[in-house]
Specification:
- InterPro entries: Polyketide_cyclase/dehydratase (IPR019587), START-like_dom_sf (IPR023393).
- Pfam families: Polyketide_cyc2 (PF10604).
- This is SRPBCC family protein.
- The chain is of the alpha+beta class.
- Helices cover about 30% and strands about 45% of the residues.
- The chain is built from four helices and seven strands, in the order βααββββββαα.
- A seven-stranded antiparallel beta sheet has the order 1-7-6-5-4-3-2.
- β3 and β4 form a beta hairpin.
- α1 crosses α4.
- The N and C termini lie far apart (about 35 Å).
- The relative contact order is 0.26.
Length: about 140
Amino acid sequence: MREGSSRRRASCSGVDASTETLWALHTDVSAWPSWNAGIDKAHLPGNFAEGSVFDWETAGLSISSTIMEVRPLRRTAWGGPAHGIEGVHIWTFEPTTDGTAVTTIESWAGAPVEADPEGMRAALERSLLDWLEALKTAAERS
């Protein structure tokens, strides 16, 4: 990880839902705003596949992300630039005896991160925890 970057990991080991349910919510990008209050808009034209680009808005930021990796029911990665920040976001899904363990890791780098590393780390951590909680809640209601 380069100097001036932020990387945070968040895990939720006790999601009482199948990997299939979580995967369906996670990969239906256009529906994210329906279950995640932190996402104002999201649109993926076409399938959730490597090389696809989706546009979304969160916390007043308009973001275009490129899907870099898809391992069905197991792992995704996407990333791209947004307002001077280069971000990469990885999600993993592991079946457990009582549901699914979900882990997300995101890293940010760029001038805004270098200007306020602690503030950006805190914002990133809060974002990941909120997203995980929203996904858990939506999956357990399904």
